[in-house]
Amino acid sequence: MEIFQHICGSTPEGEAIILYTMRNSHGSELLLSNIGASIVGVRFADRNGKIEDVALGYKDATSYIGDGAASGKSVGRVAGRIARGQMVIDDVEYRLEVNNGPNHLHGGSKGFANCYWEGRVETNRVVFSRISEDGEQGYPGELCVEAVYDFDDDDQIVITYLAKSNKNTVVNLTNHLYWNLHGEGSDKTILDHELRLNCSKVLEMDMVQIPTGKLLDVANTPLDFRTWRRFEEGIDAEFNNIRTYRGYDHCFAVDGWQRNILQEVGELRCETTGRKVTILSSQPAVVLYTGNWLAGGCPITKSDKRYDDYAGVAIECQGYSDAVHHAHFPSIELKADELYCQKIAFKLGTF
Predict the structure, then answer these.
(1) CATH code of the domain in which 311 resides
(2) Residues 33-70: pLDDT tens digits?
(3) In terms of residue numbers, what domain contains 77?
(4) Model confidence, pTM
(5) For the chain, what is the domain count?
(6) Is 176 a catalytic residue?
(7) For residue 201, which of 224, 222, 179, 180 has the smallest C-alpha distance?
(8) Catalytic residue chosen out of the listed positions 176, 182, 193, 250
(9) Is 326 annotated as catalytic?
(10) Residue range 270-320, pLDDT digits in tens
């Protein structure tokens, strides 16, 4: 494994933006940035051996600061939505920024995705760290957090999220990488991609994308990905507000989830290129987002273009959406001085 690093820009505050390139023996590459502890590139071969970048991203390193799509970033302190930006911990009510309609989304406009992280190389891995101060974006507790990236000669990316707080708080971290297995600059959408998920239940959602608390059976619905399904088949369906959301933006419960156990969640594949990504996670849920609002909201891309809607798909392994308001959902509370540890793995390959 080779790891290269170089300065590719600076923040408005003058802090260096570092690009880390991890290259394995096959020539596959994982590219990382310390803005948002993010994945800014994934390069691997199709079935004919052609290596291309399959991760959405931007031409200018500074474009990752404040991008609405949160492209490739580590999202937190709580990924997903919190209804009305309100929550109660230990009988104390906390008010968070309302930055997505009536709700709080992805930790707020100055959440982890838009923060500068310290980066370092540890032998054959890249580690990003930061301290989230008590009260940052309204959350209680000083939180020390790390995002650890491993990449091996089997073309497997492993992300480990670690966190510890000095107060009882909530934590729900994920990576917001957008995949396009045709290649980032192909001008093709992901609507012909196929997905399989080990999920027989999906959260019922209201009009503003907040769970009602009920879990629905996916059987015989457009949200049934238990066997291979192309995104274009149900992208305009009415079931569970798919049409209202302009596509898939739904939280699925992972079948057979056990705390602290890494298990297969599903697989994404593209018939045209033969590329596939197998997804594993220790988290209880996975959010499927088909890039329904990418058009007009992204900076100039790596391929000197603008993304259209459905240019990429995010498969976000995390806790249940709005878990703070549903006692029967797996808890995202982190007790003081306890260790938060979750893993996400992407196994790259062909078929």
Answers:
(1) 2.70.98.10
(2) 999 999 999 999 999 999 999 999 999 999 999 999 99
(3) 2-350
(4) 0.97
(5) 1
(6) yes
(7) 224
(8) 176
(9) no
(10) 999 999 999 999 999 999 999 999 998 799 999 999 999 999 999 999 999
